[in-house]
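Question: Hello, beginner here. Any chance you could explain the protein record under this note? Any guidance would be welcome.
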Amino acid sequence: MSSASFTAKIDLKLAEKLLSDLPAQGFELTKPPYTIFAAKKKGISCTLYESGNLVVQGKEMQEFIEFYLEPEILHEFKFSHPEAHLNLVPHIGLDEAGKGDFFGPLCIGAVYADEEGIKKLHQMGVKDSKRFSDESILKLARKIRAAYPYVVIRLFPQKYNELYGRFSNLNRLLGWAHATALGDLSEKTLCKKAILDQFAEKSVVETALKQKRIDVELEQRVRGEEDLVVAAASILARAGFLEGLEKLSQEYGIPIPKGAAAIVIDTGVKLVEKYGREVLDKVAKTHFKTLAEILAKTSSD
């Protein structure tokens, strides 16, 4: 309820009703580029984009959404009564972190929650890990680990590079890792239902499950983190990645950054200058093209 903004996708046929209703509620209308309209009054703004996205912001937005937008435009009550829209069926959620980062481990998180546990995740404010700061991720991860059955598979670069050499494909490696985490947690909890934030063709993970003879009803979803248990898994995976990066930073005495941008190349050069080329096998995913950029800089210096 304390969100700074609210976004909903609507049918543009409803624009006419909004254009009629909003001035009667005291809104002033303008038409910035790429919008159908922008409406403002004290404490609240409401913008309908040409894409159909309706964005509401401001301190007074709660009453507007609850008493006008939901009953008359959206015909659903996910903002004012989000608990009524939770998937309360006990299940395992899965997600990964670190696959796009040159340095650090690849982490797979799996969390199990029953009906009460899912309600508790909602009360804790759990949502997709990308919407939290690193500090908040680490705090939430501690709470989740203390309260829920979970599995985190953390593949530090040396092991990751070895496995990547065996699979020769990141998605197949991810499929194997997700299937391993799911199999372990299913065995621990006896849960046979799972939701995965989809990262590839569905057959990739389905094949890995068959190879491991894991009998679980798996749903693979784009934007799977909208499910609270998947969101919890994304938080554990992200925390595992951040903690792994910190461990490597301490081990090698150089702050090791996230991502794959310019600072990453500079850090790679410093590591090679201090420890030699071999260090990259221990701290980085060596199939990234970033490796060649680092080696080119170290050989030309």
